[in-house]
């Protein structure tokens, strides 16, 4: 891997952290329907979290760069999982 100056290393790690955090946020809409709260509140939580997760993802993508963000996103694509199994 390339040696990055200390500031760029921090920004890169922050970007990766934001990408991972945005993926963790996607779990909230999955579990929200099981809480005993009103339907309006559930809809608001799910909508808000999805918007926030998307914003955080793109901020992280800007910090790590286009290539790293595309590589990270490809890890999450089930179609690439099948191709990786065939290549082994």
TrEMBL record:
Provenance organism: Rummeliibacillus stabekisii
**Could you list the residue ranges that cross the membrane?**
12-31, 43-64
Keyword terms of this UniProt record? Membrane, Transmembrane, Transmembrane helix
Which NCBIfam families does the UniProt record give? suffix_2_RND
- Enumerate the InterPro entries for this protein: Transp_suffix-like
Q: What is this protein called?
A: Transporter suffix domain-containing protein
């Amino acid at each position: 891997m390339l040696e990055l100056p200390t500031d760029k290393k921090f920004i890169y790690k922050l970007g990766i952290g934001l990408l991972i955090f945005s993926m963790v946020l996607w779990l909230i809409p999955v579990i929200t329907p099981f809480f005993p709260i009103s339907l309006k509140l559930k809809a608001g939580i799910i909508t808000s979290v999805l918007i926030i997760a998307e914003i955080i993802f793109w901020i992280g993508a800007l910090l790590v760069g286009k290539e790293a963000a595309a590589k990270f996103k490809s890890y999450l694509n089930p179609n690439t999982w099948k191709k990786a199994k065939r290549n082994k």
